[in-house]
TrEMBL record:
<dbReference type="Pfam" id="PF00072">
    <property type="entry name" value="Response_reg"/>
</dbReference>
<dbReference type="InterPro" id="IPR011006">
    <property type="entry name" value="CheY-like_superfamily"/>
</dbReference>
<keyword id="KW-0597">Phosphoprotein</keyword>
<dbReference type="InterPro" id="IPR001789">
    <property type="entry name" value="Sig_transdc_resp-reg_receiver"/>
</dbReference>
<keyword id="KW-0805">Transcription regulation</keyword>
<protein>
    <submittedName>
        <fullName>Response regulator transcription factor</fullName>
    </submittedName>
</protein>
<feature type="domain" description="HTH luxR-type">
    <location>
        <begin position="170"/>
        <end position="235"/>
    </location>
</feature>
<feature type="modified residue" description="4-aspartylphosphate">
    <location>
        <position position="72"/>
    </location>
</feature>
<dbReference type="Pfam" id="PF00196">
    <property type="entry name" value="GerE"/>
</dbReference>
<keyword id="KW-0238">DNA-binding</keyword>
<dbReference type="InterPro" id="IPR000792">
    <property type="entry name" value="Tscrpt_reg_LuxR_C"/>
</dbReference>
<dbReference type="InterPro" id="IPR039420">
    <property type="entry name" value="WalR-like"/>
</dbReference>
<dbReference type="InterPro" id="IPR058245">
    <property type="entry name" value="NreC/VraR/RcsB-like_REC"/>
</dbReference>
<feature type="domain" description="Response regulatory">
    <location>
        <begin position="21"/>
        <end position="140"/>
    </location>
</feature>
<keyword id="KW-0804">Transcription</keyword>
Length: 242
């Protein structure tokens, strides 16, 4: 197990406590070093430790209590998907760590499994540094990363792996949504942000946020990422739709 390193990039104890606590998980030390350098340049982010495999990530999450776990998928031993499942399962009301998955397009087939395991989003390894920083802030705030350039490409590519949709009764839960909530869910599946959905529907962003919250609650979904997968699985959204 890699030894945790003290958080750096903050001025004092008060700042460390208020900063977003991040655990870096990747089997490549050079990548972890690169991520650390990027994140420690931000005053509101503190890297509290590093792990080189999934098993170490689970143990360090329990001991270090990070807010966000930046998780690679393919690693020796316990992979990122199983580690995500364990971390989410262990989460409690007092400590509910969010997992942000790192992926490359040649490993896309693992992403949907990671989402089902409870990941709050995913990010490409070659994303610009500013995207990494913003993604961590978004996930830490309780939202999820659902970018059209990533989400739709993944789901379109692997749509054949999703269950077939038949002309039968609507899936459990879908019939509990109002017409407006279904419309909002469709836009979420397209990867639109609350602001973009508000512009499409000509309503306030607060109204959209309320609808999204209602959709998640009624369908028993963790976040927007799971809402995207749900929309594809139920046939509410189909590959290739605009």
């Amino acid at each position: 197990m890699d030894e945790p390193e003290p958080a750096r990039g903050t001025q004092g104890r008060g700042e460390v406590m208020s900063a977003v606590r991040v655990l870096l998980v990747d089997d490549q030390p050079l990548l972890r070093t690169g991520f650390r350098l990027i994140l420690e340049a931000e005053a509101d982010i503190a890297v509290v430790g590093e792990a080189g495999d999934g098993a170490a990530a689970v143990e360090l999450t329990r001991s270090l209590l990070p807010d966000v776990v930046l998780m690679d998928i393919r690693m020796p031993g316990t992979n990122g998907i199983e580690a995500t499942r364990r971390i989410v399962r262990d989460g409690a009301a007092s400590h509910d760590p969010k997992v942000l998955i790192l992926t490359t397009f040649d490993l896309d087939e693992y992403v949907i499994e990671a989402v089902r395991a409870g990941a709050s989003g995913f990010l490409l390894k070659d994303s610009p540094p500013e995207d990494l920083v913003q993604a961590i802030r978004i996930v830490a705030a309780g939202d999820a990363i659902v970018a059209p350039s990533v989400t739709r490409r993944l789901l379109d590519k692997f749509a054949t792996r999703l269950p077939a949709v038949h002309d039968a009764a609507p899936p459990p839960g879908l019939d509990t949504l109002t017409e407006r909530e279904r419309e909002v869910l469709t836009h979420v599946a397209r990867g639109l942000s609350n602001a973009e959905i508000a512009a499409e529907l000509v309503v306030s962003e607060t109204t959209v946020k309320t609808h999204v919250g209602n959709v998640l609650a009624k369908l028993g979904l963790r976040d927007r990422v799971q809402a995207v997968v749900y929309a594809y699985e139920t046939g509410l959204s189909r590959p290739g739709q605009n």
